[in-house]
UniProtKB/TrEMBL annotation, chain A:
The keyword Transport applies. It is found in: Membrane. Keywords: Ion channel, Ion transport, Membrane, Transmembrane, Transmembrane helix, Transport. The chain crosses the membrane at residues 21-37, 49-70, 184-203. Residues 307-330 are annotated as: Disordered. It comes from Strix occidentalis caurina (northern spotted owl). Pfam families: Ca_hom_mod. One of its GO terms (cellular component) is plasma membrane. It comes from the Eukaryota. It is a multi-pass membrane protein. This is Calcium homeostasis modulator 1. Belongs to the CALHM family. GO terms for molecular function: monoatomic cation channel activity.
TrEMBL record, chain B:
One of its GO terms (molecular function) is monoatomic cation channel activity. It comes from Strix occidentalis caurina. Keywords: Ion channel, Ion transport, Membrane, Transmembrane, Transmembrane helix, Transport. GO terms for biological process: ATP export. It comes from the Eukaryota. The keyword S-adenosyl-L-methionine does not apply. This is Calcium homeostasis modulator 3. The keyword Transport applies. GO terms for cellular component: plasma membrane. It is found in: Membrane. The chain crosses the membrane at residues 49-70, 182-201.
């Protein structure tokens, strides 16, 4: 238990930093994904807007959901939310705290994607190139084109190789303009996000500190209780399995002994440990039967009480006479299940 | 206890160095961000100034706020400032000390951004190229006002078709860069001199107050950390007890329903106790179902039975029983 205690303390004290580490990794992954992504503007009038805004907004949404999926506390939150009330009241403040802290962490990678996209400028250039103010930036002396024709020409701005509107408006001028707007939006977005984060963090101690301490304690408690319960169940399952298998072997050996009309096995004077572990199965035929029986007819999930380890089976010396009929009935029961 | 003592000594000695480390990382991040950032001056008359000054001042504000957010001590200071007085008086000197140390650390990354920007020069060239006096430069002296504005605005863009072969463009660019770098180095010099004077002159004024303030700010920080540690330890013990009580109450319930065979129960340990009465599939299933449908109340005082207590009852649980010191 001491070892478990140390590990739990470590995990608990470091759970925050573990989750922060995952956040940081996701943020770096989103920046890397953006740089690895091969942006390809379609350079057609309506497709540009759809493509540009799609690249700007859809991956952040996916990253946000991924942030929830990777957070192993989501199942804890769902469980706490959906459980019946029972004897323990539900505190909505705790649920809100858990959800808020998860949502805050999940927001980091999408915010990084949007910032990097805006600061790079390709998306906005692609999406809004048809809205460039040609009157102020372009050549006023150029013969007028129809709306549709102008839009088609402007849509090709991001694709320098096929751009044919150099007399209308210089490609570099338009790209610089759009990129300037995009970067300004990007920095404003970064400033807005940091201001929001700052306000959220600094207003909390001013208003709701006591409620916050309560919610934080109980959300940690729920997490630890779940882990400890799983541990305890695992220990129980282990003991259960051990006794079940032991009873199976004992049952096998005594059953075969009685079926073959062997004389009852004499308990040797000194029962060595190895002999005890053999559990009464000492020849090839018996072992093969035991293995076949394990495969064909697993024992029921029901331990009988005089089980706990004496190792000799019930063909021992001091069993009161009322006991043997009970196990034998059990064995008959499990044979008949085949 | 020994283990705790070692951990606390570590925290105490390293709280400052953790903060300094974060500060350094943020400074490096700001330089990296500047080099990665693709500066692209719009080269249009009014946009230049907005863009150049925006790039020079908006990221430092964001970096300053980041520095405040990432610093754990800012939360501690806010809590100390806003807490009700209660039984412990508030010392404003301590709060002021914490505030000033937080601000100093948070200011480093923004200052580095501004200095790197000035030493590089692109921002100032972009922002002030329209504001130079055209008379000083040969290529711009003879044009009309509007044309001069347009041409000067295009100075930062080397590849623009009008500016490609213009020698006066280089002259304007060098002139502005010289001013920018001079400004950058001057600011750096002033800041370093100010820091130097502050370090040297501080012991001459109020050294005793400073030592006290530093001690108590450290104390508040550590007290907060220890409180969180103790709460974690307490919640772990509480959960452990709660689960054991749950298994115990389940076991008693099973005893009522199962056939009672004489049990050779002597010297039972926790594990074997768990196993001895929950020994078949249905009982295990029932236990798991009860765990989901009816979690036990949060009350581990001795006389607990299965009566409906809510969470508020946990306050009657005496904390002193479980400090384990």
């Amino acid at each position: 238990m001491d070892k478990f205690r140390m590990i739990f303390q470590f995990l608990q004290s470091n759970q925050e930093s573990f989750m922060n580490g995952i956040c940081g990794i996701m943020a770096l992954a989103s920046a890397q994904m953006y740089s690895a992504f091969d942006f390809n503007c379609p350079c057609l009038p309506h497709y540009n807007l759809a493509y540009g805004l799609g690249i700007l907004l859809v991956p952040p949404f996916i990253l946000f959901l991924l942030g929830f999926v990777l957070n192993n506390n989501v199942s804890m939150l769902a469980e706490e939310w959906r459980r019946p009330q029972g004897q323990r009241g539900k505190d909505p403040a705790v649920l809100r705290y858990m959800f808020c802290s998860m949502a805050q962490r999940a927001m980091i990678a999408p915010a990084v994607w949007v910032s990097v996209t805006l600061l790079d400028g390709k998306c906005i250039t692609c999406a809004f190139c048809t809205s460039v103010p040609v009157e102020t930036l372009g050549n006023t002396s150029h013969p007028g084109l129809s709306q549709g024709e102008m839009k088609r020409v402007l849509a090709r701005i991001p694709c320098k190789e096929i751009y044919n509107g150099q007399e209308l408006i210089a490609n570099e001028v338009a790209v610089r303009y759009l990129r300037c707007i995009s970067q300004a939006l990007g920095w404003c977005f970064v400033l807005l996000m940091t201001t929001l984060a700052f306000l959220v963090r600094s207003l909390r101690p001013c208003f709701t500190q006591a409620a916050f301490l309560k919610s934080r304690y109980w959300s940690h408690y729920i997490d630890i209780e779940r882990k400890l319960f799983d541990e305890t169940c695992a220990e129980h399952a282990r003991s259960f399995a051990k006794v079940c298998i032991q009873q199976f072997f004992e049952g096998m050996s005594t059953d075969l002994a009685s079926a073959h009309c062997h004389p009852p096995r004499k308990a040797p004077a000194d029962v060595g440990e190895a002999a005890e572990k053999l559990l009464g199965i000492t020849d090839q035929g018996t072992m093969n039967t035991a293995l076949k029986s394990w495969h064909r007819c697993k024992p029921p999930l029901h331990l009988h009480p005089p089980a706990l380890p004496s190792g000799n089976g019930w063909a021992g010396e001091e069993q009161p006479p009322t006991h043997p009929p009970v196990p034998r009935r059990e064995m008959a029961a499990y044979y008949s299940r085949v | 206890m020994d283990r705790f003592r070692m951990i606390f000594q570590y925290f105490q000695s390293n709280s400052e160095s953790v903060m300094n480390g974060i500060c350094g990382l943020l400074a490096l991040a700001s330089v990296k961000m500047y080099t990665c950032f693709d500066f692209s001056c719009p080269c249009l008359p009014w946009y230049n100034m907005a863009y150049g000054l925006g790039i020079m001042f908006v990221p430092p504000i964001a970096l300053f706020l980041c520095g405040l957010i990432l610093n754990r001590q800012s939360l501690v200071m806010l809590e100390e400032w806003r807490r009700p007085q209660g039984c412990r008086k508030k010392d404003l000197a301590v709060i002021r000390y914490m505030c000033s140390s937080i601000m100093q650390r948070a200011m480093i990354a923004p200052v580095i951004w501004i200095i790197v920007t000035l030493l590089d020069g692109k921002c100032l060239i972009c922002a002030f190229s329209s504001s130079v006096d055209p008379e000083k430069f040969v290529g711009f002296a003879n044009a009309s006002l509007v044309q001069v504005q347009q041409l000067l605005a295009k100075v930062p863009c080397k590849d623009d078709e009008l500016m490609r072969n213009n020698t006066s463009r280089k002259a304007v660019s060098k002139y502005l860069r010289c001013w920018s770098q001079a400004l950058g180095w001057s600011i750096l010099l002033i800041l370093i001199v100010a820091a130097f004077l502050a370090c040297w002159l501080r012991p001459c004024f109020n050294q005793a107050t400073l030592l006290q303030a530093r001690h108590w700010s450290n104390y508040i920080d550590i007290e907060q950390k220890i409180f969180e540690e103790t709460c974690c330890e307490h919640s772990r013990l509480f959960a452990h007890k709660c689960i054991l009580h749950f298994f115990e109450s389940m076991r008693q319930e099973m005893k009522l329903h199962s056939f009672s065979l004489p049990r050779e129960g002597e010297g039972a340990e926790g594990e074997e106790n768990l196993l001895r009465d929950i020994t078949n599939k249905d009982q295990v299933n029932k236990l798991l179902k009860m765990w989901y449908y009816e979690k036990p109340p949060l009350n581990v005082s001795q006389a607990t039975q299965r009566h409906p207590l809510g969470r508020d009852q946990c306050t009657q649980y005496k904390f002193s029983q479980h400090t384990g010191v």
